[in-house]
Amino acid sequence: MLKRLAIVALLQIVLGSVLSAVAFAQLAPGASEIDRNVTAALRELYSQNEAAKALGAKAKAVLVFPDIKKAAFIVGAQYGYGALRKGARTVGYYRTGAASYGFQAGVKKFGYALFFMTNSALDYLDKSEGWAIGTGPSIVVLDQGAARSLTTNNLRSDVYAFVFSQQGLMGGIGLEGSKITKIAPSK
């Protein structure tokens, strides 16, 4: 029985990996579409969250993933595309992806923005061959409550993250373990 469960789990992982690779290849948006989505997502985030807007004004750069899709049934995967902005200018395009295993089921869509507060954190993103969140620069995920207590005097972390536009049926959002990789999308 245990051997059968291990084989089923391995098959689910392999199938999930193959489906993720196909999804990445077929669904990769072009640069102009990523830029439009990032602009709209930042506008929405800033209109709904004053702390994010204030943080954006102080950040060295903001990496926005406006449309992350996550699906899971025991084995889960999530992916999305985004852009790194310095001011209003896009300076790079990125893909995020993660896989997970455990008691989980459902489908969810969400976005997140990473506010890079230090040059060293931005350099780490630029020089790494793919940043796995949870390694490298320190990151703090802010919810509405924590964001209200944030002031320019208590900014101590390298990177702050805001999760926004959550839709779907799945408990919890985890950024740790997500891998962020630079890409060169089509125009």
What structural keywords apply?
187 residues, six-stranded mixed beta sheet, 6 strands
Question: Could you give the topology of this structure?
Answer:
Layout (H helix, E strand, L loop, with lengths): L1 H26 L3 H18 L1 H9 L2 E26 L2 E28 L2 H9 L3 E2 L6 E4 L1 H5 L10 E11 L9 E5 L4
Parallel strand pairs: 4-5
Antiparallel strand pairs: 1-2, 2-5, 2-6, 3-6
The assembly state of the depicted protein chains is: single chain
Cα distance spanning the termini: 51 Å
Range of helix content: 25-40%
The counted number of beta strands is 6
Biggest sheet details: 6 strands, mixed
Shape: globular
- Our count of helices gives 5
Order of helices and strands: HHHEEHEEHEE
CA radius of gyration: 17 Å
Estimate what percentage of residues fall within beta strands. 35-45%
| Arithmetic mean pLDDT | 78
Poorly predicted spans: 144-151
Strand pairing plus helix content: what structural class?
Answer: alpha+beta
